[in-house]
Amino acid sequence: MINISIKLNKNEHYGRENIDSALKRLKNKIDQEEIMETVRKKRSFETPKQIKIRKLKRMHKILKQNKKSNKKHQ
Fold first, then answer.
1. pTM for this structure?
2. CB of 26 within 8 A of CB of 4?
3. Any idea where the domains of the chain sit in the sequence?
4. d(Cα 32, Cα 66) in Å, to the nearest integer?
5. Cβ(33)–Cβ(53) below 8 Å
6. Of 3, 17, 31, 54, which residue is 20 to 30 A from 37 by alpha carbon distance?
7. Is the dihedral of CA 26, 27, 28, 33 positive or negative?
8. What is the pLDDT of residues 3-55, one digit of tens each?
9. Which letter does DSSP use for residue 4 in this model?
């Protein structure tokens, strides 16, 4: 069982954080921890070819993120 919690932040203007922004933070946290990918992997059998494709996509995503972060720091 996976347990993730998000607390609503206090906003100085409106008292509490908007539910949409809290859901967006939850989605980002799920994406960062790769929870949905784990659930999908365990749901059904994955062929060796599918594993290879998934790993290549992941590497491509990491390289893309590294390029973006390098541009910000320059």
1. 0.46
2. yes
3. 1-43, 45-74
4. 15
5. no
6. 17
7. positive
8. 777 777 776 666 677 788 888 888 888 888 888 888 887 888 889 999 899 89
9. -
Q: What is the pLDDT of residue 63?
A: 92
Name the residue type at position 13: H
Partnered with residue 65 across adjacent β-strands are none
Residue 70 has pLDDT above 80, yes or no: no
**How confident is the model at residue 41, as a pLDDT?**
78
Give the separation between CA 53 and CA 59, rounded to whole angstroms: 10
C-alpha span between 64 and 62 (Å, rounded): 5
SS3 sequence of 6-74 = CCCCEECCCEECCHHHHHHHHHHHHHHCCHHHHHHHHHCCCCHHHHHHHHHHHHHHHHHHHHHHHHHHC
CA–CA separation, 60 and 66 (whole Å)? 10
